[in-house]
Amino acid sequence: MSRAKGVEVALRAGAHLGEGPVWDADRRVLLWVDILAGIVHRFDPASGRDVSIHVGQPVGAAVPRVSGGLALALRDGFALMDVNGAYDLVANVELDLASNRMNDGKCDAAGRYWAGTMDEAHSRPGAGSLYRLDLDTTVTRVLDGVTISNGLDWSPDGATMYYIDTPTQGIDAYDFDAEIGEIANSRRIIDIDPADGAPDGMTVDAEGYLWVALWGGWGLRRYAPTGALDRFVAMPVSRVTSCAFGGADLGDLYVTSAQRALSKDELAAQPLAGSLFRLRPGVSGLLPHPFGA
Ligand code: CA
After folding, report:
1. Long-range contact list for 51-57, CB < 8 A, 24+ apart?
2. Ligand 1 centre distance from Cα of residue 293 (Å)
3. What is the pLDDT of residue 293?
4. Is pLDDT at 290 greater than 70 in this prediction?
5. 165 CA to middle of ligand 1, Å?
6. Annotated catalytic residue: which of 153, 200, 205, 252?
7. Is 200 a catalytic residue?
């Protein structure tokens, strides 16, 4: 398959499960993870260099901290890493559920870290939850009965949170109380036909539209906050996992992908699987929020 117009390979990473891109504006690098390999990547677009940080267990997401270093959603829970790469697990999550691990995560405007879980071994329905790590490292279960907790983000005014539990094949919106970090009034705003792929990671742009990565769907969809489909961007790989805006003007859309569960023949047909891609869709993103401690 030829490369989609305007989509370039930023890094031919060959990632098994590339995920969780987030722009670190202070350092002008893109953080992303290879979940089951337990690697946090730091990609510098200026040099094209990518540095791997091995964290010793699956890592569902990584975000910058205001104090430097990273906040991590690890298999075993939330961890805070210092600038030298040493980390402490500050909040255990589901240690009693041996096959569960943390998955996608993101910080709200107040710097709280939201990330959820899933049953890695069996994808047991309803076995996961969504959690919130407050700045004092208190952890709160916000939703339970989730199967594959995945992409989340907020509207530009911070009043709405969007959330994906992948097997539900859609996106839910919640009223978001930014003061106390609580969600309410769940409603389904977008449904996706399984034939078009499964919703995975997501980011909201400066116009308040949602960009949704489609696992098995060979691309990204952009939706209006009303739920109306606005655009499809084709990618040269089937396992499109997540996306995030970066670059000095936040106009570069970075897209992660995976080789996971591809047969030998499929891999041969999509040799760029696992790469980090970049495009300029003509709209910019919002400045991502770091963990606030
Ligand atoms: Ca994901």
Report:
1. 53/85, 55/79, 55/81, 55/87
2. 25
3. 85
4. yes
5. 10
6. 200
7. yes
